[in-house]
Amino acid sequence: MIGPPDEREQTPVRRILRDLGYFGYFLHQHRGGRSGKQHLLVALYKSGSMMTQRDLQCFSRIASGSISELLAKLEAEGLVTRLRSESDRRQLTITLTPAGEERAREVLRSWDKFDETAMACLEDDEVARLADTLDRLASHWQKLEEERKGEAACGKN
What we know:
The protein is mainly alpha-helical. It has helices spanning 12-30, 37-46, 53-60, 64-76, 98-118, 124-156; strands at 50-52, 80-84, 92-96.
């Protein structure tokens, strides 16, 4: 049996962090994760339907082995082609097929539909204030992450 919530769980900070965790889950389930196949399709589509694998990897922040696996799946589904560069045999150029372009447009339409309803319970000024607050929080967390990476790098020496 689960008892009453710990008092610490009810602090504003804990509530915010709990809610942010739920929002991450909800976004992953209903709009797709940041690094899935659909995000690669959209990135390619927005870049003119063609990009090097290296550029796509940098944009998506996906590890090289993982992006290779995702691209192999997209290629097997007939959504992209991968061609080795003639000038640099190490480089692959990824191109959307017509089916891949259509799938990317479908993903963008579904994201637009989600975006229309996601904040429907808030007034426009509330959305603007929330966006500003979250931008400040994201900036702060990025600084914390950079500091931690710096500490980790120092510890490796």
